[in-house]
Amino acid sequence: MSPRRRPSGGRIDRLRTIRFTFDGTAFTGHQGDTLASALLANGVSLFGRSFKYHRPRGLLTAGVDEPNALVTVLRGDVREPNIPATMVEIHDGLVAVSQNRFPSLAYDVSAVNQLGGKVLSAGFYYKTFMGPVVGPLKGTRFWMLCEKIIRRAAGLGRAGHAPDTARYERMNAFCDVLVVGSGPAGLAAAREAAASGANVILAELDPQFGGSANWSGETIDGEPAAAWASDIVGELRDQANVRLLKRTTVWGYYDDNTLAAVERVSDHKASPAKGAPRHRHWTIRAGKVVLATGAFERPLVFPGNDRPGVVMASAAQRYANEFGVLPGDKVAVFTNNDSAYRSAVALNNAGATVATIVDVRAEISEECHTLARQCGAELIVGHAVTATEGGKKLTGIKLAPFTEAAGALSSGARSVEADCLLMSGGWSPTIHLASQAGARPLWDAELQAFLPPEAGKGWVGAGAFNGTFSTAQAIAEGFAAGRVAADLAMVEIGTLPDVEPAALDPRPAPVFEIRAKGKSFVDFQHDVTSDDVRLAHIEGFVSVEHLKRYTTLGMATDQGKGSNVPGLAIMAEALGKPIPEVGTTRFRPPYAPVSVGALAAERFGDLKPERLTPMHDWHLDNEATMYSAGLWFRPMIYGGPGETIEQAYVREARVTRETAGIVDVSTLGKIAVQGPDAAELLDRAYSNVFSTLPVGKARYGLMLREDGLVFDDGTTWRLGDNDFLMTTTTANAGKVMQHLEYFLDVVWPDLKVHLTSVTDQWAGAAIGGPKAREILAACVTGTKVDNEALPFMGIVHGEIAGAPVMICRLSFSGEMAFEVYSGAGHGIHVWEALIEAGQPFGMVPYGLEALGTMRIEKGHVTGAEIDGRTSARDLHLGWMLSRKKPFIGSAMMDREGLVASGRLELVGLVSLDNRPLSGGAHIVEDVDMDNPHGSLGHITAACFSPALEKYIALALVADGKARHGKRAHVSDPLRDRFGPVEIVSHHFFDPEGKRMHG
Amino acid sequence: MVEQLSPLAAVFRPGSHGNFVDGVGVTLSEMAPGSIVQLAAWPGEEKKLIAAITSLTGLKLADGAGAGAASERHTVFGFAPGKFLLTDTAEGLVSAAGVVTPAMGTITDLSHGRTAIRVAGPRSEWVLAKLFAVDFSLVAFPQGSGISTAHHDIFAQIQRSGPDRFDLYVFRSFARSFWKMLCHASDEVGYEVR
Amino acid sequence: MLITCPYCGPRDVSEFAYQGDGNRSRPDPSSTDLAAWNAYVYDRLNPAGAHNEIWQHAGGCRAHLAVVRDTLSHEISSVRFAREKGAPAHGRRKSGAKP
Ligand SMILES: [Zn+2]
């Protein structure tokens, strides 16, 4: 066992040895160790290099507030940077590396930055790199030159590029009471709330419940505190209404008591259990929240306070008691309050020599004198530490007499040898979650700390969170909070639990900084010194929010857990204002860093929602290249061997116009519109009339938005007097549904109409071409499909291969065409029957590219032209605007701007240089390749037309119709495509519609 | 009559999967009822519609949001104001539902449009809580009752058909995708497909 | 944020779709008063405080809800079905009037 490891005590299992590496060196630790405690036990004191100055840094804390000892954990090729070593549980095979050092941790070339301290002071980047380019070594151009070097030198860990293959999950939870923090106060609250039968969730960010009970060394009702805690946890574990979540950081407090937490399910294991996630993101909706989040001990600000070996007093106590590791052999203590004396005794009990206790206070309590004697330390009151000695490791401290009024005096200085300095600057309650919930913290002059205000509507606090630093009182508050949260009548707790030793005076001296020569760090992680704070003040920053952004104080990954109050205090002193007048910043989520994987959870990879048509597998089996249309997947082309996309769609479109083709149209939005007022609703929603539509017929309809622009189009079929089937474009299915639902619910609640999405009820196959009717006739039974039985826009019911079908004769391709609808579960069956019937005719399946080609040839509009800016007249659909009735959009469609000349109108374009056109290209009168200008409009869709044997396009062009027959040019500088086109009617092919009418 | 093809066929793998060493946490199955229909009452006609459902199925429904009931043959539950989802193990329910008169409301056949998936077993609530922001505890979601909710873009109507059994109705086009997510979410607790 | 749907009970805001200012009233369909139509289509209240809003429970029962929400605190003071007539619980605005 290592010399720093105590023979017994703490949460670690000394019988279980664990092997891991840090910076390539193999180490061992024990089950229960963090990376921090294990390395400490191995005598490692140097953990990282600081952000800006590359100063050597060691462990400052033992918990989530650690600013210095950030490491990168490697899992295979996946790097996870910036994890505090204090939060990494070791496991066999753990590989961790230090950060922000080059070439190695011990020899870092950038440490020279320390010498240039003045250069890198607050606002350095702003001053040097912002603003106009005035010279070679200033301004934005200089920044561009230096950015790479600076980004490498200043910063935290490096993110990896390997895809993270770990599994992440989300979980929704509901409870009556969420208790955050499982120290004595939290445990008491959870126990009390659970006893009432309330549903309780207890969340603890550490791997072990108990909080300070695990290291305080106290006894509660005669029992060691750790045992007292584990007894309660055992009780709670057996209760069905209690959920215990350890390794779970509650990091966000949102509206309506919705809290976000992340559970590190598998990080402490070499590999996760089968199917288990690495992290689980919890969204917890709680009736009430008990905030028992404790407090952070804060550093004192003095020169050299960042040297490895300087550690928070409570953290040293925690290492000794919870992990059985001594952070030093010869210990000194520097404090402004009583709590550090207990830490000194704890270290002494654990086997360390406590050389000196330096207290800024001239007078201290009798208890403190007793404790100092108990640990055999030389007690030096009225003094302060003014410097630390040593290189990468503390060897000693310098102290000098100190008064609050005069600060540190230059006379009477002396040195003390020590390899570890415990410091304590008082305690800051962990009020982050309450602050997120909107509570404005209140400054308590006695405790020199921001306390939460009166309990909020959704939460109640207990223990050190409230500034209650006595364990007995904290338990009493926990008890009360548990009752309040569970909605129970308040009762007297009776006698307080008996906690030994008794609590000390929690009031620190109002001393935050010892001013002396040398860098005194306020924010360790962002390398912000007390001089930086003062510089910000000199430069005119008075608001704490500005100070924070200018110096970056509190903006590192630890969010200023330790630095917030000292930084404010120094700012307040500079401003000559009391601390509460300077105010504190509002804490924002997350309380501690959260993995992006946990936030994304299931929403990545192949788990994204996909919509598949009933014929999806057939398409795949028949060489379709699929592409996504919203969430849907649709065939683009059915590529033959060696075919290009253009060759494939040209072939598909040509065969369709020559004989027949079939396309899957199942994705079209379909809405059942039912009820006695269904026709009335359609008359109001469509620009044309539907109430006159006979049963058994379909009609093409156009919808406008309230502002008079075109919204969507489609055919609607009348299946019965009160029963319509509306089809929408694939893309707008959801929007049209929502639009109609809004009007029915909010504007016309008196209309008796029900809307139901039946998109998924039907499989749709559109078969078109000169042979389409023959093919249909060959496989349909139960109905005729000739011109008489099935005229244009007629609907018949029949069967195909035994499955019921509904057939409507309508055409998008411009050919004689039929849409065949069957139950989705019969989709493949019907599709295959149609394919088989088409075989003798050489019918082909076609994809969206051929569909698009044929619609461009016909000049039909789709979403590319219905782009939210075009009116019905722009698209030459003015004939669909009924003058007989008002409809949605009718009042606004004739506004001046919508009927003015110069609007972009739909036209056709023919490429005159026999080269392809593409969507988005501009149309100009004259080409100016050097200075493209004078756009008349743009191309919305383009293709090679097999019917015309030309490259053609649809476009929106100013006064387009008046330009028919004129020449213009495409101007597409991004794709370097310029060339002549002819503007023509959008009806390229069969303008009279002879083919579809037969 | 031609048999309906399940949208799950390509991904349906009967047997035990995931971490089932300590037993199977959930059992996943496709219910494939013969008929699924939606019944929707006009405002004020809800009680008459409920009476019609009772006369059609013999099932008694409480008067309240989400109320539901089930028998060997039928299940029914409310999922929206005045709207109910009704299933029958037999096909052709939509034509038998003439008891719902136009004065009462409408009937819409969804037999092909919705896919019914059953999640049963001791970890059902845990698995479903991964996918839906809904409280699945028995107190909040009593037996027989139904809800409407969504997992991202996937709408789901869910009925609790047993103390640890839930029947989910999702859009057919999403069913395969949803099934994969459900299997993924069940990995951790071990699941059996049957 | 949670919205308590009168049918479904409290649900996460992610199940709802915001459908705009609930103070708008649509002119008579045959009205040709362009100013009134313009106000209905384009004018929106944007108060700091209580606001009448329309939300659809799109990922649930799909009913539209008339919600009174405080835009500063996100606190919701009332929810009812939008189709149930009656003045919103919070001051109604005349069409065309700027707040
Ligand atoms: Zn609802």
From TrEMBL, chain A:
InterPro entries: 2Fe-2S-bd_N, FAD/NAD-bd_sf, FAD/NAD-binding_dom, GcvT/YgfZ/DmdA, GcvT/YgfZ_C, GcvT_C, GCVT_N, Sarcosine_oxidase_asu. Residues 517-602 form the SoxA A3 domain. One of its GO terms (cellular component) is cytosol. Keywords: Oxidoreductase. Residues 906-990 form the Aminomethyltransferase C-terminal domain. The keyword NAD does not apply. PANTHER family: AMINOMETHYLTRANSFERASE, AMINOMETHYLTRANSFERASE, MITOCHONDRIAL. NCBIfam families: soxA. Belongs to the GcvT family. This is Sarcosine oxidase subunit alpha. It comes from Aminobacter aganoensis.
TrEMBL record, chain B:
InterPro entries: SoxG, SoxG_het, TrmE/GcvT-like. The keyword Cytoplasm does not apply. Its EC number is 1.5.3.1. It is an enzyme of class 1 (oxidoreductase). GO terms for biological process: sarcosine catabolic process. Keywords: Oxidoreductase. Pfam families: SoxG. GO terms for molecular function: sarcosine oxidase activity. SUPFAM superfamilies: Folate-binding domain (SSF103025). This is Sarcosine oxidase subunit gamma.
UniProtKB/TrEMBL annotation, chain C:
Keywords: Oxidoreductase. It is an enzyme of class 1 (oxidoreductase). It holds the Pfam family SoxD. InterPro entries: SoxD, SoxD_sf. One of its GO terms (molecular function) is sarcosine oxidase activity. Its EC number is 1.5.3.1. The keyword Calcium does not apply. GO terms for biological process: tetrahydrofolate metabolic process. NCBIfam families: soxD (TIGR01374). This is Sarcosine oxidase subunit delta. It comes from Aminobacter aganoensis. The lineage of its organism: Bacteria, Pseudomonadati, Pseudomonadota, Alphaproteobacteria, Hyphomicrobiales.
